[in-house]
Design brief:
globular; mainly alpha; about 70% helix; about 220 residues; about 0% strand
Length: about 220
Amino acid sequence: MGNLFNLDNGFFVALGKLCDILMLSIVWVLLCIPIVTIGPANTALYYATVKSIRRDRGYMFREFFKSFKLNFKRGAITGVIFTFFTLFLGFDIFWSWTNMSIVKHSSVFLGIFIALFVMIACFSIYVYPILSRFDMTVKQLIKAAVFMSIRHLPSTIIMLLIIAASAIGVFFIPILVCIIPAGATLLISLLMERIFKKYMPQSEGPGEETGKDEWYLE
């Protein structure tokens, strides 16, 4: 009976994780409102979700704002770039769809715009997690995102489906925006971290102390 109220009980651990996901999602939503902060917010969301919620390292909000501040400039630049292309292609898709019966070859343009939109979405899946973990310039960051999204295409498709399902869920049930951002990020990290380990420098040797908390290699 006493074990039922033990804070290490699986139920309470799961409940604690759920509360963390809820709070982190709400903070992310609030920080995305200014638009220009979408990039840093996405970067911080991935970093805090993996390190604090998944790996139980550090304090969640401290890790979130640490990453947010550290990667603000590059995150803001990449965020503006990807937001611009997303809105631009979204408008083109809408225009092509509504003018299919009027404009000649609009169906061809529609197909091209959808393909470009999917490509941008695939690249954006990687760009913020990469920024949260690696020290790169904006140019290197985008090149790495393009390379990884193509190199690990099966995982990219699965992660894209997770994001699409999340977007559909929020569209039909808006209140889910309070839990889906960090929840979807946690699911994506199960694939993303396996990919990252292929590019991470390994420890110097078994049993050797490096003095660093290499939680990302676990």
